[in-house]
Amino acid sequence: MSASAAPPPDNARPPRPGLRERKKLKTRVAIREATYRLIDEQGYETTTIEQIAAAAEVSPSTVFRYFPTKEDIVLTDGFAPVMEAAVRARPAGEPPLEAVRCALRQAVGTILADQPREFARRGKLMLEIPAVRARMTETMAESSLPLSRAVAERTGREEGDLEVLVFTASVLAALREVTIYWAEHGQKDDLAVLIDDALDTLEGGLTL
Which sign does the torsion angle of CA 142, 136, 200, 98 carry? Predict the structure, then answer.
């Protein structure tokens, strides 16, 4: 390493997760990998929590502690905090929809880069399994909270402001429909382009 490329000081590096957090993450990953493996082998409906627990070498109660339902194992992806952080990092004064648009591209890009197979499987299961699609709708309000916080902060509004809630709910609903549309069409379309089109519709409405 050259003298001009000195490593960053320790206080500039993100803190390393503690042992407990690393163990939790390892358990979550093991449960999700076991779930997808079993679904690939025998289908979604016939895969049980007991089978998932055995494959992940944990107890059924541990599975439920990390994921309240089988659908949550498929749907939980860490997207909400990534999206919140991306919105907060956008330049001050940028219009809310543009900030969310750029942040959404970044967050989806991160998920696709880190979990490409899981993202594709999730879209397929949302399309094929009504319970997965219904659970995503049920949890959308909870998923929107981090985004609502970031949008409220940027706009100087309260987190519970009606317009903030409508705005963030609309964005996440658009993302849900884009994901389903993408899956319906064989996941061949450029997801970033589909997201842009969906947000253009939110911004300008339907045109004749």
Answer: positive
